[in-house]
Amino acid sequence: MKKIVIAVDGYSSCGKSTLAKEIAKELKYAYIDSGAMYRAVTYFCIKNQIIIDSNINFDKLQSELKNIKITFNYNPQSKKNETYLNGENIEEQIRNIEVANNVSLISTIKFVREHLVNLQQEMGAKKGIVMDGRDIGTVVFPNAEVKLFMTAEPSVRAKRRYEELIAKGQQVSLEEIIANVESRDYMDTHRDESPLRKADDAITINNSNLSKNEQYVLALKIINEKIQKLNESRN
Ligand code: DC
Predict the structure, then answer these.
(1) Main-chain dihedrals φ then ψ at residue 95, nearest 5 degrees
(2) CB of residue 34 inside a 6 A radius of ligand 1
(3) Measured between alpha carbons, how far is 103 from 107 in angstroms, rounded to an integer?
């Protein structure tokens, strides 16, 4: 059976990576978290003082970009695909608040996006890949065989995120999280470079009222129907 490319785009805190990982596992495909790549570049910038107090040294970043090698390796202990920067495991560091606060800025830079899009396209050249992000179905793989666009009401996403953070022992208010979700939505959809938008041929999954399992079953049905159609047209 021919392998395909599956693009999963959508708003933040929509459960994109959970769904993309489950699909990849089921189909025995590779899973790539493109957001982790933007986070890795951001971590590199912070570590090398390329970004200080939201001021970016663009010349230094442009000349250093070729020295940023991002890879993913499966860790059987955590059962996760972890992110490496030049051979160093940075999975934990890229999830910290400093990276989260700076990544939106780094991901608006045109030459950073071009560089990462090239790498992402190389990763998907042999197909058999599920990639999640904001521009996968529109820019990275405009010819992806399946494009899913995930969304949920902002209040639902904020509540999920709030519960996750509270479970981790962080002290946050629901109002603060709602404001954060709304501001990230605004930045993602209004930036000049590759703003988040639904590809014309993407299928929307609004998971406001779906359980994780219902969403998974629905996505897999869409994918399997597409694979079946492709196989029939080849016969
Ligand atoms: O999915 P995430 O929250 O880990 O993404 C981190 C940031 O990177 C987020 O601000 C949006 C940005 N991003 C992007 O611009 N394009 C992508 N393909 C993936 C993420």
Answers:
(1) -95, 0
(2) yes
(3) 6
CA nearest 44: which of 110, 97, 88? 88
Q: Check pocket membership of 41 for ligand 1, CB cut-off 6 A.
A: no
Taking only the tens place, the pLDDT of each residue in 133-176 is 999 999 999 999 999 999 999 999 999 989 988 998 888 899 98
Q: How far, rounded to the nearest angstrom, does the alpha carbon of residue 88 sit from its chain's CA centroid?
A: 21
**DSSP letter at 193?**
S
DSSP per residue over 30-58, as a string? Answer: EEEEHHHHHHHHHHHHHHTTSEETTEE-H
What pTM did the predictor assign?
0.93
User: Homologous superfamily of 5-234 in CATH?
Assistant: P-loop containing nucleotide triphosphate hydrolases (3.40.50.300)
Give tens-digit pLDDT for 174-216: 998 898 889 889 888 998 999 999 999 999 999 999 999 999 9
Q: Name the residue at shortest CA distance from atom 1 of ligand 1.
A: 35
Instruction: Kindly state if the Cβ of 132 falls inside 6 Å of ligand 1.
Output: no
Three-class DSSP category at 191: coil
Task: Report the DSSP beta bridge partners of residue 148.
Answer: 8, 203
Give the CA distances from residue 227 to residues 5, 31, 224, in Å, rounded to whole numbers and listed in that order. 11, 18, 5
* Structure tokens belonging to residue 83: 């992110």
Helices (H) and strands (E) in the chain, counts: 8, 10
Nearest-angstrom CA–CA distance, 134 and 199? 10
